[in-house]
Design brief:
Blueprint: H1 2-18, E1 37-43, H2 45-48, H3 52-62, E2 68-70, E3 74-75, E4 81-82, E5 85-86, E6 92-95, H4 101-107, H5 109-117, E7 122-126, H6 129-133, H7 138-155, E8 160-164, H8 171-174, H9 176-195, E9 199-201, H10 221-240
Parallel strand pairs: 1-2, 1-6, 1-7, 7-8, 8-9
Antiparallel strand pairs: 3-6, 4-5
Bound molecules: 2-acetamido-2-deoxy-beta-D-glucopyranose (2 copies).
Length: 243
């Protein structure tokens, strides 16, 4: 009896394993490729102007995960230092200061950028802070996320989508409404990420906007280290697979 159950289980498992890769499939590696695994950082100024990408790149290199290429038409920041030492990293990204998710959808920007960088294997997203600051409603932001996700899947159905919850912002900067808006958007994003079986990075919990940002919004060195540390296990797993 036990044996039969085990055999049945094994049969089921091999069926699951034999299925072609599905959108949002968590625990498989990106299909083996001769060239490098292409990873697009996507968002607004927190993606464009801060050093978490540099620290993430360094952590991956230090862990001998070197078969990667960060992609995108943007290139920066010009330099990043960590504990006083300069960090070398791949600066390519699609972070655009001031950008909103709803604008990206209207402009068709992401589709153009994905086309230019094709194939994108993994996308890392931190996006929506400016939508909240400009008082876009949460349902409208989530609708934009829906459209962006369909654009990613159209570009590469096997694309692994990593979505970061938004880091908090100081109410001194844009008022309590914006600070609370980030919390509401994160709650909606948690549901959306889980509904769509995407990979989540929690960059909210434990992030302190007083000590970890330069002015209440953009991560300083400490905040960028925090973000890199939180992206790292999720990105590494997406690259390598395994559970
Ligand atoms: C997005 O696309 C629109 C339409 O082409 C363009 O006007 C806008 O500048 C683009 N946004 C960014 C951040 O590149
Ligand atoms: C403290 C905290 O929130 N940790 C979470 C950070 O993000 C990773 C990836 O989503 C989670 O696994 C941690 O629990």
């Amino acid at each position: 009896m036990k044996f039969t159950i085990l055999a049945t289980l094994c049969g089921l498992l091999s069926l699951v394993a034999a299925r072609p890769s599905q959108p949002g499939y968590h625990n498989t590696a990106v299909s083996p490729r001769a060239d490098k695994i292409r990873i697009m950082p996507f968002g607004a100024s927190i993606v464009e102007n801060t050093c978490w990408r540099a620290y993430l790149w360094k952590k991956l290199q230090d862990a001998k995960v070197t078969n990667i290429d960060f992609v995108g038409g943007q290139s920066g920041p010009a330099s990043c230092t960590l504990n006083g030492a300069s960090v070398s990293f791949d600066p390519n990204n699609e972070g655009h200061g001031g950008a909103r998710a709803v604008e990206y959808v209207q402009g068709g920007n992401l589709t153009r950028w994905l086309d230019a960088a094709k194939p994108v294997d993994i996308i890392m997203i931190h996006l929506g802070t400016n939508d909240v600051i400009t008082k876009t409603s949460i349902p409208d932001i989530i609708k934009a996320y829906d459209t962006l996700l369909s654009q990613m899947k159209a570009s590469n159905p096997a694309m692994k989508v990593i979505v970061s919850l938004l880091i908090p912002i100081d109410p001194k900067l844009f008022g309590q409404g914006a600070t609370d808006g980030i919390i509401s958007l994160n709650a909606a994003l948690r549901d959306w990420i889980s509904k769509n079986k995407l990979l989540q990075v929690d960059n909210y919990t434990g992030f302190d906007y007083v000590t970890m940002t330069t002015e209440g919004e953009h991560p300083n060195e400490k905040g960028s280290v925090f973000m890199a540390d939180h992206f790292y296990p999720v990105v590494k797993k997406a690259i390598e697979g395994g559970s």
